[in-house]
Structures are given as C-alpha cells and as structure tokens.
Amino acid sequence: MLKILKNRRFCKTLTPSEQKKVKPVHKLTGMIHSFETFGALDGPGVRFVVFFEGCPLRCVYCHNRDMLDLVDHSMMTARELLEEVRDYKPYFGRKGGVTVSGGDPVFQPKFLLEFLKLCKKDRINTAVDTSLFTSQKVLDSILPYVDTFMVSLKHFDSGIHKCLTGVPNEQILENLRYLSSYVGTAKRPKAKLRLRYLILPGYTDTRSNLSALRKFLREVKFELIELLPYHTHGVYKWEELGLRYSLEGVKAPSKASVQRIKKMLEKEGHKVLLNE
Ligand code: SF4
User: Which of 50, 124, 128 is nearest to 93 (CA)?
Assistant: First the structure.
C-alpha cells in the first residue's frame, strides 16, 4: 500500500485549474456528451444510455476522459432529452429503460433531478451510474426517482482512493451505507443497488483491499456486484486531449485472477456479474 502512495507517478493531485472544473453545476439546462441507443451493459435489459458531461473525480484510469470537462455546445433541456429517449421506449420491454451515466450525472444535480422526474412521469425505468461523491441533500432529492443505482467502489484506503481519483472515499462510503438502508424498504420497495468494482492490477486486487471489500459487502444490502477488469481502450482519449496517461505499463488482469476474485465473492453468497 505504502509503495503505491510513495509512487508519485500514479498519484492524482488536482491542479488548480482542475479544482475549478470539479465543482458541481446547478443549472436546469443539461450538458450532454452523447447517447448510446441499445446499451446492454449499463443496467437491466435494453438501455438508452445518456452520457452527462462533468465529473467531480479525476480517476487516473478513466476511460471516458473526454467527458469530464464541460463543453457548452451540447446544451439540452430535460424535456428535449426525454424526447430523444421516447423514440426507443418500444424496445425497453419489461426491464429496460434509460441509464444516466457520464462523467458523473450527480455533477449536474438540478438537471438530473428534472430529467429523472420526467422519465418517471413517462413510466420509464431509470438507472443512474455514479461515483456517489455528492451531498446527502442531492442524494435525497433523486432517491424517489431512481430504480437502479449503479455505484463504483474505487478503493477502501482513503489515501490511495485520493491518489487514484483525486478525492477521499469517506463521503462515498457513507452515501453507500445510506443508500443501502433505503433501497428495498417500504419507501422504495423495488429500487435496487448495483455495485461495480474495477479490477486494477496492483491497486484494487491487493489482499488488503479485497479483504476490505468483503467486509464492506457484508455491511451493505445490494442486488449484485459487477466486476470490471481494467482495460486500456480509453487511453487514446487521453492522448487526443494531450494528457499524460499515468498508468502506462499497467496490464489488464489475467483471466485466472478475475475468476479467482469472482469465485471468492460468489463463495460469500453474492451475485457476481463479469462485465468485460
Ligand atoms: S468517476 Fe468515472 S467518469 Fe469520473 S473520473 Fe472516475 S472513472 Fe471517469
């Protein structure tokens, strides 16, 4: 662990200009990066995936690096966005719907809430893919309108979490515990929590982090955990933006190591999905 922290090459420290860019935007008009119309990997069933711009984190391995900064040319109202989704409603079936991803949707909390409310009014199933690095006030506001929360667990050591993402983990874990006490209760009996866990060799697959993961999973109530083996498909985006990719040389985990982690979690009674 200490070795990772000492290795400054990997540490993410936000520059002053980045610090300005990671403050949430409270506007009713949204900044949208792009859509994916028949998503099969971002929530239950067939999904219309909307990628919001902006994120309060700066993960060193981010494969959507081009979505983290706000670009004004893609402004939309929540109603305009809903119209985009509506055309695909016939394909959603019983389970599918819209997934709001990014970036991180909680970076534009007012717009997110507005859009989720319209979706629910239109009886569209909603999923939100988020880091949960947000205030409890924002979380409380969107809770009644989200059917599935998809939350990425990054690292259980707050120092290393900060090193990898630019922010500590306390608020995220606190929000996760709060969410876990809410979903599936009388308030939202059908709401679900899905966890996501990136297997980043040498960082998140260490014995101590996996042991902290197992302990945490015993504490919270969730539907399933998705394992995401690290890949380098998004590195070209960093290069295109003229940014240095600091995990250069880190390879994808071996199939054997991914299977070992999967089996370990299944043995604990968890439902595990491999998302490759
Ligand atoms: S939270 Fe997701 S979108 Fe934001 S920087 Fe990290 S990996 Fe990228």
Answer: 124
47 lines ligand 1 (CB under 6 A): no
Q: Is 106 in the pocket of ligand 1 (CB under 6 A)?
A: no
Burial 229-255 (b: 16+ CB within 10 A, else e): bbeeeeeebbeeeeeebbbeebebbee
Q: Tens digits of per-residue pLDDT, 231-268?
A: 999 899 999 999 989 898 899 999 999 999 999 999 99
Residue 114 Cα to ligand 1 middle (Å)? 22
- Residue 67 CA: which ligand 1 atom is closest? 3
Domain CATH for 256: 3.20.20.70
Query: pLDDT (tens digit, 9 = 90+) per residue, 166-188?
Result: 999 999 999 999 999 988 887 77
Q: Determine the structural domain holding residue 166 and report its residue range.
A: 2-274
Ligand 1 centroid to residue 246 C-alpha, Å: 15
Q: Which residue's CA is minimally distant from atom 8 of ligand 1?
A: 62
Predicted model pTM: 0.92
Separation between Cα atoms, residue 29 and residue 108, nearest integer Å:
9
